[in-house]
Here is the input.
Amino acid sequence: MDKAKARARIAVRVQARARQTALAEKIGEAYKLRLAAPPVDGKANEACVRFFAERFGVPPSAVRIVQGLSSRMKVIEIDGVDPAEVERKLNS
Here is the structure.
């Protein structure tokens, strides 16, 4: 798959105001993401985007929350990442 056209989607359940930002266990089809940021003024969403950008080595502009901007359940879309790599990179 052409990396420039690759696009991965990840279902995430966010827990804001955690002690530290970290990926936790997978619950069904969604990963649990603990964020130190509070869920106010978009801070948790910004932290979520930064977390996935760093984890996948892409710029923050390549990461979007496509569902659940004001919800704990979110769908994250990442440009330039092969969907087949998602499990491997999230579990490493």
User: Anything to note?
Assistant: The longest helix spans residues 43-56. The radius of gyration is 12 Å. The chain has one domain: 7-90.
